[in-house]
Amino acid sequence: MHSITFNPGPSQITSQVYNDIRHACDEKLLEISHRSPRFNELSEKTITELAKYLELPDGYEIFYTSSAHQGWEQALLSTTNIQTEKTFHIGLGSFSEKWAKIADRLGYDFGLESVPYAQAPDYQNIEVPSDVTTLCVCHNETSTGVRMRDEDLVYLRSAYPEQFIAVDITSSAGAVKIDFSLADAWLFSVQKAFGLPAGLGILIVNQRVLEKARSLQSINPLGAFGLPYQEEKMRTKFQTPATPNVLSIFLLGEQCERWNKIGGIQEIERQTDEKYAYLECLVKKSEKSEFLVKNPAVRSRTVMALRANEEIVKQAHTKASEHNIILGSGYGDFKSTGIRIANFPSVGMKDFKILEKILYL
Ligand SMILES: Cc1ncc(COP(=O)(O)O)c(C=O)c1O
Description:
Layout: E1 4-5, H1 15-26, H2 37-54, E2 61-65, H3 68-79, E3 86-91, H4 94-106, E4 109-114, E5 132-138, E6 140-141, E7 146-147, H5 150-159, E8 164-168, E9 185-189, E10 201-205, H6 207-215, H7 227-237, H8 246-261, H9 264-285, E11 289-291, E12 303-308, H10 310-322, E13 325-326, E14 328-329, E15 338-342, H11 349-353, H12 355-359
Helix pairs in contact: 1-8, 2-8, 3-4, 3-6, 8-9
The chain binds pyridoxal-5'-phosphate (PLP).
């Protein structure tokens, strides 16, 4: 059994979350009806604490999904007419490209422009065709550790005011501050920076998206999870048509409440930056490894990808397992020459300090 996991999802779970799970069992929350006042209250608390934690602007609404995958799908189906409109995807690596594959599987006419491995796009030089309805981007590419800068989102919003902009924030949401006013749809799942067990996703949309989704009801296969079928129940009772993951909804509310009490996203982001700086120092001192993403301005603060030769990577994993620690492995092409370290809020500075012993002996 491991003592610490640096895997970039599912995340390490803190003892506070384990206590919340025990509390949910003791209070019989796992058995309540999702149509009961008790559920409404619990879900309202989660939505309120999450909106407060994310500093969500007015006009945005939060929906539960089963995962980021469902968020990918619903973001497309809610904004883009499958028969006549197009989506466009900027590929930074495996996950952003998977979103394009989902568009393809749904039958969309889609475009994909991918950057070379572990590099960030120059957003100003990407030619998004003028007839695109929805532009899909990834805020933090978990496979390579490339991130978008705030100014990239500012640029995209001003360059594409008519298009819908949908952003995958799966491995950054919760750990760093995001300006939600800069896009129309945002999605993530809770097993990354929110430090919770997998099984719940969140889709956040503005009123433009909701209006468009309503207009697409008889055109797109919105299916059981289409936003027009969710919005009224969610708005009036914080309920979902399907039986939701009550435990995860409860845990998310508790996590956000706890973080709001200690200073909200500002404080958590401060901790993220502190741990990032610590690892940056270790990597600078090391002669055996380097960051996969060379440019610090576009290097993820939440999923840190390191590169070394195969032997060093093997040694690091062996050393880690001697300490009962899991390191994230490299992804795709850099599986054997990469290590990924999750800098999620549930992995504390105390945990980070052990990396000195493991990575660079
Ligand atoms: C950036 C990104 N998007 C989407 C996903 C898919 O998440 P889920 O498995 O919760 O659907 C992941 C999973 O690692 C991810 O890292």
